[in-house]
Amino acid sequence: MKAYLGAIWACRYFWLSLVKMDLRSRYRGSVLGIFWSLLHPIAMTTILCVVFSCAFGQDLRTYAPLVFTGLTFWGFFTASAVQGCMCFFNGEAYIRQHPAPLAIYPLRNVLGAAFHFAIGLGLAIIIGVLVGPDIGSNPSATRLSQALALPSLLVSSLLLLLFGWSVSILTGLFSVRFRDSRYLVELGLQGLFYLTPVMYRIEVFKDKHRLTALLQYNPLVSFLDLIRDPILLGRIPSLTTYATATTVVLVVSVAAVTALWIDERQLIFHL
Amino acid sequence: MARIELEHVNLTFRVRQERGIRLKDFILKRLFLPSRNPIMEVRALQDINLCIEQGDRIGFIGHNGAGKSTILKMLAGIYQPTSGRRIVEGKVSSLFDLALGFEIEASGWENIAYRSYLQGETPASVRAKKKEIAEFSELGDFLNMPVRYYSAGMLVRLAFSIATAIDPEILLVDEVLSVGDLAFQNKARQRMRDMMAKAHLMVVVSHDLESLPHVCNRCVWLDHGRIRMIGGCAEVIAAYRSSVDQPAIAA
């Protein structure tokens, strides 16, 4: 395990330069540059805000940051899972030439996705600070408590990165074995999107018991709370939230390590 | 000290007729139907015992499909032996599948960096070598263009220039000498010779029976994944020749 991480570190220049290239080629020739990647969540937020504030009378000041943070997280999660499906195929030529650790190919995708996430999170923080914490949901929140809670996002981002990397490894290995995985993953994500409080508050379903129960067992909720608590509610996420998120990360990463353990030596025969 | 040791190494490929299966089929067929896409086993290497010491220059010969390239990839660590022990001490540099592994959207310069990093270089050492690699490839201003627009010959040239800009400890070569046009080929041969002379240990796979005795001190004849004969080049090549009808097989 230690040797494996060492091997990943040893070829850091390789995967880092590939991440850099991915980002550069994505923005090459576009005037908007980095802001291009913000366009999607901003546009989606605008659309949802218009629809929901008209149809359901949502308060824009609290609803817009909610949707924007939700979509920023969701973008990272889907990118990790969906791009992960292709990562070993994209790296096939390298895999056939060099015995570099396989985990660097999912890492390449996840770091690219993490870059977009970081930009989105930056904007979310700006919006959150401008609007101020949502006193309606957390009466004890002040601008000071919000500012004090923001640094917790660093730890949360690291957890998320590890989560995304593990998810990417799993979907990647799975799609080498089963070629139709990508469609299944996309389908699954579509369903999961509605089961995750990305564009609504979990409290909406308070009185519908079955749905709340279902939502309670959605592991993604804890990640959303990790991001939303400091920005929207101006408080450091509760210990329960951290514990849940850490457990989820642990379970997924142990699964990813096990899958790599099994597949590391064999993957090339299935490519 | 560079050293390679193989003890009772077996390598079995388990392949399917169709590349990859779908989850849908997997579930359906496992449950209800016998598979129409059975796993076939190919015993690529069988009971290989070999010890290569510092200073050795080993040449592998044999028919197509005898396992020559497979053994090279196994030595490089790309294929893991199914059973047996493989000990490789020293930093491995390998030259095979040269035209593979380019980022086609990136420029020639960028690709020089990526491939060098993959070979274990650092930004500092790449900066020092970049110019020399560019000069050797003779690609000039093309290096500023995305690799997507390169011809096949240009790609191989670039790949060869990058791959050979190293000081190898263990050098693994899979007949890559036919690169580029005639002038470049001569240059490439010279470069290969220099590099082979520098390597602490070398393993080469070739069909060129004429030139093998010049670069190797020992030869291994592989036949259907087994070692048929190990010994001095002259002797092994003579035995191999007499076993085939034609005096020599051109690639």
Uncertain residue segments of chain B: none
Structural class, from secondary structure content of chain B?
A: alpha/beta
Protein chain pair with the most extensive contact, residues per chain: A-B, 28 and 34 residues
Q: What quaternary form is this? A: heterodimer
Per DSSP E runs of 2 or more residues, the count of β-strands of chain A stands at 0
- Helix segment count of chain A? 13
Output mean pLDDT of chain B: 83
Gap from first CA to last CA of chain B = 34 Å
| Helical proportion of chain A, percent range | over 70%
**How many DSSP H or I helices of chain B?**
8
Major sheet strand order of chain B: 5-6-7-3-8-9
If you had to describe this structure to a student in words, what would you say it looks like?
The complex is a heterodimer of chains A (271) and B (251). With 271 residues, chain A is mainly alpha-helical. Chain A contains 13 helices and no strands. Chain A has helices at 2-10, 12-27, 35-55, 60-90, 92-95, 104-131, 143-149, 152-177, 181-195, 209-216, 220-232, 239-263, 267-270. Chain A is globular, with a radius of gyration of 20 Å. The mean pLDDT of chain A is 87. Chain B has 251 residues and is an alpha/beta fold. Chain B has eight helices and nine strands. In chain B, 37% of the residues are buried. At the A-B interface, helix 2, helix 5 and helix 13 of A face strand 1, helix 1 and helix 3 of B.
Short characterization:
Chain A contains 13 helices and no strands.
Write the layout of secondary structure elements.
The complex is a heterodimer of chains A (about 270) and B (about 250).
Chain A: H1 2-10, H2 12-27, H3 35-55, H4 60-90, H5 92-95, H6 104-131, H7 143-149, H8 152-177, H9 181-195, H10 209-216, H11 220-232, H12 239-263, H13 267-270
Chain B: E1 3-16, H1 23-32, E2 39-52, E3 57-62, H2 68-76, E4 83-89, E5 92-95, H3 108-118, H4 123-137, H5 152-163, E6 170-174, H6 182-198, E7 201-205, H7 212-215, E8 218-223, E9 226-231, H8 233-243
Parallel strand pairs in B: 3-7, 3-8, 5-6, 6-7
Antiparallel strand pairs in B: 1-2, 1-4, 8-9
Helix pairs in contact in B: 3-4, 3-5, 4-5
